[in-house]
Amino acid sequence: MVYEVKSLNEECGLFGIWGHPNASHITYFGLHSLQHRGQEGAGILSNDQGYLKRFRGMGLVSEVFKNPSDLEDLTGTAAMGHVRYATAGGSSINNVQPFLFDFYDMQLGLAHNGNLTNTKTLKAELEKDGAIFSSSSDTEILAHLIRRSKKEDFLDKVKEALNTVKGGFAYLLMTKDKLIAALDPNGFRPLSIGKMKNGAWVVSSETCAFEVVGAEWVRDLKPGEVVVIDDAGLHIDTYTTDTQLAICSMEYVYFARPDSVINGVNVHAARKRMGKRLAREFHHEADIVIGVPNSSLSAASGFSEESGLPNEMGLIKNQYSQRTFIQPTQELREQGVRMKLSAVSSIVKDKRVVMVDDSIVRGTTSRRIVQLLKDAGAKEVHVAVASPPLKYPCFFGIDIQRRSELIAANHSVEEIREIIGADSLTFLSLEGLIEEIGVKTDAPNGGLCVAYFDGDYPTSLEDYEDCYLKSLSEQTSFY
After folding, report:
1. 317: which DSSP letter?
2. Which residue among 196, 238, 377, 448 is the one 20 to 30 A from 456 at the CA level?
3. If you average pLDDT over every residue of the chain, what do you get?
4. Which positions ≥6 away from 210 have C-beta within 8 Å?
5. What structural domains does the chain harbor?
6. What is the DSSP string of 382-405?
7. Are 390 and 404 in contact (CB under 8 A)?
8. Digit-coded pLDDT (tens) for 322-353
9. Among 31, 44, 101, 38, CA closest to 73
10. Is there a catalytic annotation at residue 394?
11. Percent of the chain, pLDDT > 70?
12. CA nearest neighbour of 253 among 14, 448, 457, 15
């Protein structure tokens, strides 16, 4: 089993650029900004006067592109890149994107963020029709659908394929003369467009990459949109009007970088407001507030301001520790956690501590951090979580697809408190989450997908329906 400081992972991050002489180098910097969205593999595909070429590998961006020649060989004025964490398909170089298809009449680059819910059905149909898959990733399905389309125009083929796949998806495609971006009808995953001073267009999973590469935000892709970028500029189109905004609320809670803006909402500001609301819903005496680094620091800041309790750095994260620890004994597993996080005894000793975290998945990490604080001398540890209890799976791009993985699906709040060893446990209310994120929209749930909290999915689960219904009867003990 893999033991990590956090147990949620998203599938990947996308970055694309059109019209820059150093396109691959800009993409490299863009992917660095998106590294938090996937650490398993990375790749860049370049377009040099209509010829597409690619370099990819396993590991972090800096590990994949460790030799200068790796980027220098990717010449051209357009490029697209991808960082990956697998939720669909295994850990293999064959699944690292962007994919590059060398057809007899054209080349096609393809990258995807999200998870398709009708993969099993489509793959079976395509294989019966003679399709041969070179990866186990659901991303490849779109390419097969495009090639099998009877439409004459390439964009029409893409639109038809986009109307065939279901689930959560943000796509980047590249041909010899265009870069195409598309978003699913619910807009589960973020995707934004920016422009550089030299006129180059940029597409990124998060706006934080724009600051790094010197681009200005232009607009977010809307649900059901397909955007074409070529030498003539930006062309906005739609492939469906049957849309309903339901952006993943966990982007605001945990996944996105604090400096990103999603649907007009700054992530740091949203987390801070969530922390303030959490403080108003918290009803215990305490001395200090400590945020679990790094994604909970904004919420802890808001909690501190609202409650009047000092915000202290009682937990230190080692930024240079390895990402995961796969260890054969409990002692070594505990040592792995301590390599990542340390409690500051001089700060927490004899104090009633509010430990602010963004979410609780399995409870394993929370239990260890509570113990770290108590071992360091904390008199009491009150856990305050800046999101509601995670009770239901996600099928649109987060790697929790079974209720048995979620402690809140199997135990009450009081039982969870006992399991993690906290003196109290408070979760942010669902109403508080929606109100404090504050997306300006008339869509249900404030334009958010909150299905992992209430089980109300904004779109059909397709192939996952039977699995989900079965999981409702699963019960797992976390003792």
Report:
1. E
2. 238
3. 91
4. 192, 194, 202, 204, 216, 217
5. 12-243 (3.60.20.10), 266-471 (3.40.50.2020)
6. EEEESS----S---SSBS---GGG
7. no
8. 443 334 454 554 555 667 889 999 999 999 99
9. 44
10. no
11. 91
12. 448
Single-letter code of the amino acid located at 112:
H
Tokens at 439, concatenated: 């997306």
Cα–Cα distance between 100 and 109 in angstroms, integer? Answer: 5
At which residue do the structure tokens 């504050």 appear?
Answer: 438
For residue 418, give every residue at least 6 positions away whose Cβ sits within 8 Å of its Cβ, in sequence order, or none.
none
Contact 364, 421 (CB under 8 A): no
Which entry of 12, 208, 248, 449 is annotated as an active-site residue? 12
Q: Residue 132 — pLDDT band, cuts 50, 70, 90?
A: confident
Tracing tokens 């065939």 back to the chain, one arrives at 164
Looking at this protein, which amino acid is placed at residue 228? V
Q: What is the dihedral of CA 417, 420, 425, 428, to 10 degrees?
A: -120
Q: Global pTM?
A: 0.92
CB contact at 8 A, 247 and 262 = yes
The two tokens of residue 360 are 């609780």
Torsion of CA 330, 331, 334, 339, to 10 degrees: -140
Strand ranges, E, within 7-98: 12-18, 41-48, 51-58, 78-84
* Element of type H or E holding 158: helix 154-162
**pLDDT at position 469, please?**
84
177, 290, 349, 371, 409 from 338: Cα distances, Å: 51, 17, 18, 11, 28
What is the enclosing helix (H) or strand (E) of 267?
A: helix 267-281
- Whole-number Å distance between alpha carbons of 18 and 20: 6
Note whether 41 and 31 are within 8 A (CB): no
Of the candidates 120, 109, 121, which has an alpha carbon nearest to the alpha carbon of residue 44?
109
Length of the chain: 479
pLDDT in tens, 270-321: 999 999 999 999 999 999 999 999 889 999 999 999 999 999 999 998 876 5
